[in-house]
Each structure stands twice: as structure tokens, then as C-alpha cells.
């Protein structure tokens, strides 16, 4: 049995070798690329093609996959670099950059260490941009600064086949001396604002008090004017009545008013001595005469 098997193998050895060679050729010709990667194919050491996701075919024994590049977004480690602002303040800036490879052939053949190259470029751009701004502008216009850094970085790394998706400034740190000076300045500014607010409050209180006094004076003047107008109206009415023949009525009213006043004076407690002027007695006599219909 063994001799027959060996005889069969010896007769078909060529077919077996041919089948093995065909299997190797097919397996090396077919390349399945994942969705998150791209394959760089070389032929005799030169760039032949870039394979995208899916099933791809290459020439067996001539072409080879030299590089497998991930196209997922990457994040550089947080980097810190010193920079000097336009007003000569030393700051330490923490940056973080996100990028992804869009042209693997450029990334492979034009740059050796892409992460180090991007980190060095970011450090230079950050120093250059911060050098044109004062410290207050760096703190208040961080979004604008980030956009400028991203734009400058995108122009530089375009030749490397990558796309900068995001550039962030995580923090801007100051040395102890600068921080203490800024804190002192902040406290002084707060004290100044408090004094200004207090002064404005006092001025507003004085203005409101003056407005209140002015309003009260205006109201009193209006009241006096109304009373004066009423008295003038009453005087004119009395004058008209007297002019129309009401002299007796006027004398009667005056006499009755004098009688009422004397009655009020006599209501006091204890013994009282009332001195009546001669005119008062005459006025009462005239009043009784008028009451009886006789002229004085």
C-alpha cells in the first residue's frame, strides 16, 4: 500500500508542484485591505500603487505591499513649549494636534518621523504667533489664535500628505513672578472698580435727592398756584356780588363771622374776661338789623 502511494506521488509530483505554485500566486495576487487602512505597493523598490479598502489585485512575485498605513485620525502627545509675547512675558503653552493621513505615498516617501515633524512645526508656529500678541490678547483671543495656528500648520504639512483636523491650546501657564504681578494688578483693578461703583452710587443718590426736592418744590408751587387761583376766583365772585347789590349780605356775613369767633373765645374753661372792640358791637347790631330786614 505504501509502495503504491509513493508511486502515485512520484508520478504526479509535477502536478503537485504546479498546484502549489498556482496557490502561492493567487494568494499573493489578492490583497484585502481593511476600511481603516491603505496599502502602499512597490515593484522592484519603486512606488507602484496605493490600494484602497476592499479586494485588490497585484502582480504576484513582482509587486509587494511595502507599507500598511492607517487612515484613522491620530492625536499627537501633549506638547509644551515656551514663548515670549509682544509685551515680553514668558509663557508656557500646552498644545495638542489631531491629524490623519490622506495621501500615504507622500507620508511614506517624503518624511521619516511624521509625529516629530508635526510637533516641531507646531512649536515654531506657536512661538511665532504668540510673539505678535500681548498677554491679554493671548488670554482673551484664544479661539482666534488656535485658528491661526491651524491655518499655518495646514500650509506647512500639505506636502506630507496629511490633514490637520484640529489644533488645540490646552493651557497658557505663567511663571510665579508674572502670576503674582497679574494678581496684584487684578486686585488693584477690582479696588478701582469698587471705588468707582461707590462714587457712582453716591452721585446717583444725590441726583435722586435733588430730583425729589425739585419735584416737591414743583408740587408746592402748583398747590400755591391752585390756592391763589381759588382765592382770586372767590375774591372776584365776592366783588361781583357786592357790585351787583350784595353789600348788605357781605356785611351780614362779616358780622356773623365775628359773632362766631367771639362764641369760640367764650368757650374756654375758667373765668375769662373778653374785651370787645366798639366795632364788634356795632357789627353785631348791624347784623341783627339786617336779620330783621332793616338797613344799618
Automatic annotation (TrEMBL):
It comes from the Bacteria. It is found in: Membrane. Its main location: membrane. It is a single-pass membrane protein. The chain crosses the membrane at residues 12-33. Pfam families: Band_7. Residues 28-186 form the Band domain. Keywords: Membrane, Transmembrane, Transmembrane helix. This is SPFH domain-containing protein. It comes from Paracoccus broussonetiae.
